[in-house]
Amino acid sequence: MNRLSDLLSVRNLMLHFVTYYGVVKALDGVSFDVRREDVFGLVGETGCGKTVTSLTILKLLPENAMIVGGEIIFKGENLLDKSEEEMRDIRGGKISMIFQDPSTSLNPLFTVKDQLVRVLLTHQKINKEEAYRRGINLLRSVGLPDPERLMGFYPFELSGGMQQRVMIAIAISSNPDLLIADEPTSNLDVTIQAQILDLIKRCREETEASVLFITHDFGIVTEICNRVGVMYAGTMAEIAPLRELLTDPLHPYTKGLLASIPTPGKRGERLHMIRGMVPELIKPPSGCRFHPRCPSVMDVCRMKSPPTVKIGEEHLVTCHLYETGA
Amino acid sequence: MGIHTYVAKRIALSALVILGTITVTFFLSRMVPSDPAALWAGQHPTIEEVRKARVMLGLDQPLHVQYFSYLTKLMQGDLGVSIRFKRGILGDLFFYLPATLELIIAGFIIALAIGIPLGVISAVKENKIIDHLTRTVAIAGASIPVFWLGIVFQIIFFGMLGILPLTGRVSSEIVITNPIKRITGFYLIDSLVTSNWPAFTSALVHLLLPAIVIATYPLGLCVRMVRASMIEVLRENYIRAARASGIPERTIIFRYALKNAIVPAFTAIGLSFAYSITGAFLVEFIFSWGGVGSYITYAIATIDYPVIVGVTLFVCVFYVAINLILDVLQAVVDPRVKY
Amino acid sequence: MARKVSLSPSLGRRRFSEARIIAYVLRSDPLSVGAIALILLIIFAGVLAPLIAPYKEDILGIPRPGYKFLPPSLDHLFGTDYFGRDVFSLVLMGTRISLMAGLVVVILSLLIGCPLGVIAGYFRGTVVDEVIMRVTDIFLALPPLLLAIVIAATLGPGLENAMIATAISWWPWYTRLMRAQAASLRERPFVEAARGLGVGELVIVFRHILPNAVAPVIVQATMDIGSAILLTSALSFLGLGAQPPTPEWGLMVNLGRPYIRNYWWYATFPGLAIFITVMVFNVLGDGLRKALDPRLRIRRAG
Question: How far apart are CA C12 and CA C9, in angstroms?
């Protein structure tokens, strides 16, 4: 459904990688919407395709990637139709991305000033002095003390938290409509994690941007997201508002995920595990990709891909269990 | 440690290495089967003349005394005397040096000017046709016998096409009509400074072929190193992040990636400059260039052993000095190197 | 495509399956396949030279006056030289010399360099290591050709001396390589186990570490055969190596030099032979290096 409040609509995205060992069917019909002022959490285990999805949105994929189907509608236009030139305007301008490891995402041989000013000059028609001024303000707004001195630093001279703040400054420099955050806190200390999350929340409030937040950590999801999409092996298992997902998970995978989170209340119990392993995607399982591990598996699951069913106002689940007429 | 300590430490180590080389060459020189005293005394010497030569050359002293006197002489810059020319070797070396330097610098500039862009293009278009072509060219550069290539060029450009000269640094007419005043010894610079245009053109034309021949090895190396380095860099996260910020691709390749790529390739490329000096020897021989290479190849032909050793030591110091400069430069350029 | 990694003291089994992967990757690279084919052809030509050379007696240097300086033709593919000898036959016979020279130099260098390197690596940090590395540094302080020139000048002209001279300037590279290998192998559990069992240090070094460290060095050595040929022919070109009438390629280039204006073939074809031979080894080496690069074997998407 294409509502006016939809900022980004990913529809039935299918992506393949051509590798030495075979064709990896990385994304198999992924669909979700990010609305204005959403913080949409994209959750899943490593390798489920969440990072790949975000890279596809910005068309930052390697050479051996092939988009075989679907659309990515951003503010009414299909990004997949756009030329490289047009994408360059959008990247860093209307859609920005921050990455998991800030220490490797900043060029070690160039100063903060160099990298920040260059991005400002790329997207805004200002001169160097103005860009420098705005850069200072940006650094201050992300909570970095003494921005003038910081401008002259090299990335390796900054701590992990500071590096991430610089990245965020770069990302929000042109007031993007959508900020994609790919596990921005996974490589940071827990205390810094909280600060960065706060910062992202604050940025969102101030600029009214939407955030597509990618993570494998449900704890972070509950902190910051208002809607959640659970991915598994290149498919979207379930989408729901945060509260609903936590209180009423529908997909067996989501249930398993939530059950395996250790919480203080469960002390003394055995850790819940989802039996089996994440499948390899050159020859994915037939029918529903989760069926080999599903405790509620039925015959139809092995044969047919499950449909996406809408339960209630906002809740979508892709599973045969909820198939209408089943 | 600060940069000064670092440099000092490196210099000390280099000095040790040079000392070691001196020792090795000294003992080698005492192993020569032919008698240097007899060679010195010239054709058909009498026994008396040979004996006098031996005393003069200090060869009648015990070995360790010879070694120390050798060292002391070296400290004073005395590299010994050429048997053939009966002149001080060091003086001759400095006379011939500019010609060689002009040659290898010209060759190196050509190698970099072609090699770096080629390496970058090859990396960006990895595995496409142009990449395979470039890699083949690079390997060829490392495989071509330099002495053969020079001759082939002479055959083609002089023998068959007649457009480039055969040998020498300038044409013999220029020596008579517009002789180049020797200021630095670099013909290009000297003729430019004195506005001697005919000489400048002649020197340039003569420099062309030998410089290209010398450039082949560093070129091949440069292309391969830059390519390998660029490919690695282009895979890095920060390049992906830069793309995600919408920075134009050209800026990313030539401003960001290239700088990151050059730094690790730096040392290897710099070493190829030092290595090209041996290529220079062969090229000078073929083109009668009149530099250190001609000097030493003549010494080889006449078994002028002191010259061979003297030039070797000189080149050794040169080589070690380049290594040292490269190390220090690397430390300066790369902000991450801790010193 | 899972590989079994054995933890036994001899890493031989792992090396074998790795060799098969290398062979597989090499097979898919057309340049490498071409290079291997050419190398085999060259070796073939060298071995069979006495049989296929049309005028094989020419290497004896007996002049044939009527045939002086004939240009290339069907009769004499590469023309004839100053003495009227068939250059093609000379080049063919020279193949054996060059190949042998390359092989001998590399083997000699390995024999000197590997034990030193292994010892230095195993006793890393000790006086033994320092001494060996300083000596290596001294020999590395000179460009290879120059050192070879000095040594060859000392020993006197001749192909054998040239080979020795080249080997002496070459061994330090292998010492460095072996040292790095040995230093990392030293930390392996099987070494500790051997030590715990009371096996003598030198035995460990030579029976356990050396065989396992030698693989990448062998690869490098194969590639170096080309460079060794280049060096020895350069020495011959300068007059320090093979002497007439030996049909050595570098020597022939030198002999042909005075005549390049009118009789270009004498200097050109032997040099071409050097070029092709060295290039073919370098291409193979490049292919080997690519095949061994772990990153290029793309891991499965996880």
Answer: 9
